């Protein structure tokens, strides 16, 4: 009984320590959160360039085009976050050093995992903190990125499913990016404006290989 009590006590202490660490991570100042987001988005953009090149070399032009467009979209987030950071009197320089694996499907899954982490775990506390600090430009930039990353994850997942099913011919040949929020589209049918930021579709940037 005493042993069980000690084990439960240790677990409780560990949980408390973990929660404190999580609070410290998610309660970082908005300036630091902007730098973290810029670093993550910069590395994602570079990673997607490499996946795009890999997909093209492996005869998957639809996948290659999607990731070329996605790389551009991530760079939109970088530029948006950087503009806010600069307005707050700070700057940052990121030199990405990204390597990817040899398996294209695994790399796409890694991209899905990265996007999912951003929209479920990274951006929500950043938005909350920016709201608390009343940094409205950061709130908008983080929110646009969060919503775009959720859309990205969905499209990557659909593309991976087609690839695994041997239906790569059904992957869109032309992809589109909203130049304001980085939203991603594999068709313009049914869209007149970007659902995230309201930009009209004639402003979208198209990608094709």
Structure description:
- With 209 residues, the chain is mostly helical.
- Mean pLDDT is 90; it is low at 1-25.
- The protein is built from 5 helices and 3 strands, in the order αααααβββ.
- The relative contact order is 0.14.
- It is globular and about 50 Å long.
- Strands 2-1-3 form a 3-stranded antiparallel sheet.
- It has helices at residues 2-26, 30-57, 61-87, 104-133, 136-164, and strands at residues 174-177, 184-185, 205-208.
- It starts with a helix and ends with a strand.
- A hairpin with a 6-residue loop joins strand 1 and strand 2 (184-185).
- The longest helix is centred in the middle third of the chain and has 30 residues, at 104-133.
- Helices cover 67% and strands 5% of the residues.
């Amino acid at each position: 009984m005493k042993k069980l009590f000690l084990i439960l006590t240790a677990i409780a202490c560990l949980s408390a320590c973990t929660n404190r660490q999580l609070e410290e991570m998610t309660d970082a100042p908005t300036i630091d959160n902007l730098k973290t987001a810029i670093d993550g988005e910069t590395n994602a953009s570079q990673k997607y360039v490499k996946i795009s090149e890999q997909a093209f070399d492996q005869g998957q032009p639809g996948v290659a085009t999607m990731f070329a467009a996605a790389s551009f979209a991530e760079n939109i987030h970088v530029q948006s976050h950087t503009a806010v950071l600069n307005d707050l009197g700070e700057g940052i320089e990121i030199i990405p050093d990204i390597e990817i694996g040899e398996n294209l499907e695994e790399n796409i899954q890694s991209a899905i995992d990265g996007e999912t982490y951003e929209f479920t775990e990274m951006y929500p506390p950043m938005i909350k903190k920016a709201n608390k600090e009343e940094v409205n430009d950061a709130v908008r930039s983080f929110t646009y990125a969060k919503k775009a990353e959720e859309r990205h994850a969905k499209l990557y997942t659909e593309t991976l499913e087609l690839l695994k099913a041997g239906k790569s011919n059904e992957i869109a040949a032309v992809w589109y990016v909203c130049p304001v929020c980085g939203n991603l589209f594999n068709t313009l049918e049914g869209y007149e404006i970007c659902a995230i930021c309201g930009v009209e579709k004639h402003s979208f940037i198209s990608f094709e290989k």
